[in-house]
Amino acid sequence: MEVKAGVAGEAIENFCEKGEQWDYGKFGFVTTAYKLTTDHLGTSLDPPANWNEFGATISDLPATYALRPLVVVDIHEKVMRNASYHATPEDVYDLEEEHGTVPKGSVVMFRSDWHKGWDNYKQEGLPTEFPGITLATLKMLHNERNILFHGHEPPDTDMTPSLEGEAWLMHNNLVQAESVANLDQVPASGCLLSIGFAKMEGGSGGFAHYVAICPPNAKNRISVDENLGAPLDPQEHPLRWDAMGVLRPSPLAIPTEYPVGANSAAFGCVNGRPSWN
Questions:
Q1: Percent of the chain beyond pLDDT 70?
Q2: Which residue in 111, 58, 104, 50 sits closest to 85, CA to CA?
Q3: Which of 105, 80, 81, 102 is nearest to 91 (CA)?
Q4: Which of 90, 193, 98 is nearest to 133 (CA)?
Q5: Are 221 and 213 in contact (CB under 8 A)?
Q6: Taking Cα atoms as reference points, which of 161, 165, 163, 183 lies closest to residue 174?
Q7: Which long-range contacts does 32-37 make (Cβ < 8 Å, 24+ apart)?
Q8: What's the pLDDT tens digit per position in 17-27?
Q9: Three-state secondary structure along the chain?
Q10: Strand partners, 5
């Protein structure tokens, strides 16, 4: 993926030239441009169209996906003993003995703690063995528990030669979550899952953000009473584009000086002076 400062796509009379980079001082705002090599980068929501030419694309998914009961099946200790351990129906049954039957229409995430090695993977490459979920487990969850979808931490469902689990899901018009992180901080049950994803028209995948809405007694929780989030904390330094094209606080940056000139067309300014003051 490439990231860089956004520019004007067309000339606007008395405002900007085509290709001119947006600037805080001159225009009052900036934008960021992204070039994506695939819609399966990072944490994602995987629709059937990824494998199935008759499958729903990411823009076909309904709004009812946005909020669901969440169940977390913990297999991380088994993965510590066997890096390619694949979750079985018995792992789900064990969870149900303690927390009750998996709710209909829920999302079932499998905690393997695989995400904790990501910094090493970036330096040394992906490992040769991945944890996964067996086809029998996927069939049980969908056919017997009627879940919405499941999620896992590695980028694939299983390590079979044909990726049989992923093939079964996609060709049966089912969805999955991939490359999920931080499941070690989420209770096994009692949470709701807020699912935010980019509904790019006709996309075969979608960047996604999964947030567990937890009960008051959950560990690691951040309460809305403790962090209202409005207004947001300001940056310590002015934002500038770094060498990778990412907008970040820069200790060496000189803040934009206002007023920027009586003839300035910068949004937010009147006669060159900031209207927000």
A1: 99
A2: 111
A3: 102
A4: 90
A5: no
A6: 165
A7: 32/3, 32/4, 32/5, 32/6, 32/247, 33/3, 33/4, 33/5, 33/6, 33/7, 34/1, 34/2, 34/3, 35/1, 35/2, 35/3, 36/1, 37/1
A8: 999 999 999 99
A9: CEEEECECCCCECCCECCCCECCHHHHCCCCEEEECCCCCCCCEEECHHHCCCCCCCHHHCCHHHHEEEEEEEECHHHHHHCCCCEECHHHHHHHHHHHCCCCCCCEEEEECCHHHHHHHHHHHCCCCCCCEECHHHHHHHHHHCCCCEEECCCCCCCCCCCCHHHHHHHHCCCEEEECCCCHHHCCCCCEEEEEEECCCCCCCCEEEEEEEECCCCCCCCCCCCCCCCCCCCCCCCCEEECCCCCEEECCCCCCCCCCCCCCCCCCCEECCEECCC
A10: 32
Q: Which CATH superfamily is domain 44-213 in?
A: Putative cyclase (3.50.30.50)
The model's pLDDT over 115-165, given as tens digits with 9 standing for 90+, comes to: 999 999 989 999 999 999 999 999 999 999 999 999 999 999 999 999 999
The pLDDT tens digits of the residues spanning 194-228 come to 999 989 999 999 999 999 999 988 888 888 888 77
What number is the average pLDDT over the span 57-76?
96
Parse the chain into domains and list their residue ranges. Answer: 1-35+231-277, 44-213
pLDDT of residue 103 exceeding 70: yes
pLDDT in tens, 24-43: 999 999 999 999 999 998 89
